Amino acid sequence: MSTISLNRILSNVKENGHKLTPQRRYIIEIMMKNNQEHWSTEEIYAEVKKVCPEIGIATVYRTVQMLEELNLLTKHHFSEGCSRYEFADETKNHNHHHIVCTKCGKVMEIQDTYFDELERHIQDDMNFNITNHTVTFYGICEDCKE
Ligand SMILES: [Zn+2]
Ligand SMILES: [Zn+2]
Ligand SMILES: [Zn+2]
């Protein structure tokens, strides 16, 4: 659940000297609109193809790469050989965390508050100043448990 706005993304792309072609716009809009927030390039391609059948996967790759270079997208490696992207939340100083189902591949976000206590323990026990952390939990989701 990120705080992101379409206008900010679009103007950032233009301000950095990139052309905002209709295809790029479709890609950005679809990634933002759909509530599935952690996209693989293939999933973006399949979705954009519905509104823009002439688009090629190379365009999707290049657009994703451009957005990543502008730090608008965050890249995740949740499983071997598959990168997933989501828009970066500019209002947060670090990214939220995820739980990943190893059966169906579903990615869900978890709140950050769980880690406050853990950080305090580590700081105290190890005399270590924590400045950031990344956490991903792997397991079986509710739907796959049955
Ligand atoms: Zn699952
Ligand atoms: Zn996320
Ligand atoms: Zn955190």
UniProtKB/TrEMBL annotation:
Keyword DNA-binding: yes
Free-text comment on the cofactor: Binds 1 zinc ion per subunit. Binds 1 Mn(2+) or Fe(2+) ion per subunit.
Family in the record: Belongs to the Fur family.
Cofactor: Zn(2+); Mn(2+); Fe(2+)
InterPro entries: FUR, Fur_C, WH-like_DNA-bd_sf, WH_DNA-bd_sf
Sites where the protein binds Fe cation: H133
A biological process term (GO) from this entry: negative regulation of DNA-templated transcription
Protein name as catalogued: Fur family ferric uptake transcriptional regulator
UniProt organism field: Alkalibaculum bacchi
Keywords assigned by UniProt, alphabetized: DNA-binding, Iron, Metal-binding, Repressor, Transcription, Transcription regulation, Zinc
